[in-house]
């Protein structure tokens, strides 16, 4: 039997900003993402691989947008 399962992980705006700052300073996105997500509840941390690519795209977008403003 097949069931559909939908979940959501809310990432604080300050955590997204932190990841962006670390990546701008040269940190690897994977390391920054994992460090931030490790402070979340276990269920969110262990499910974070489902949002990894989406968060990476958002961080890249924010960094590019910030670079264009400067």
Helix tally?
A: 4
Poorly predicted parts: none
| Rough outline | elongated
Number of strands: 0
Query: Which sequence of SSEs, written as H and E, runs from N to C?
Result: HHHH
What is the averaged pLDDT score? 95
For the termini, the CA-CA separation is 54 Å
Largest sheet: none
Query: What value does the Rg take, in angstroms?
Result: 14 Å
% residues in beta strands:
under 5%
Tell me the helix content: 55-70%
What class do helices, strands and sheet pairing give?
mainly alpha
Sum this structure up briefly.
The chain is mainly α and 70 residues long. The chain has helices spanning 13-24, 29-37, 42-47, 52-69.
Tell me what the structure shows:
This protein is mainly α and 70 residues long. It has one domain. Helices cover 64% and strands 0% of the residues. The chain is built from four helices and no strands. The chain has helices at residues 13-24, 29-37, 42-47, 52-69. α1 packs antiparallel against α2 and α1 (13-24) packs across α4 (52-69). The protein is elongated. The model has no long low-confidence stretch (mean pLDDT 95).
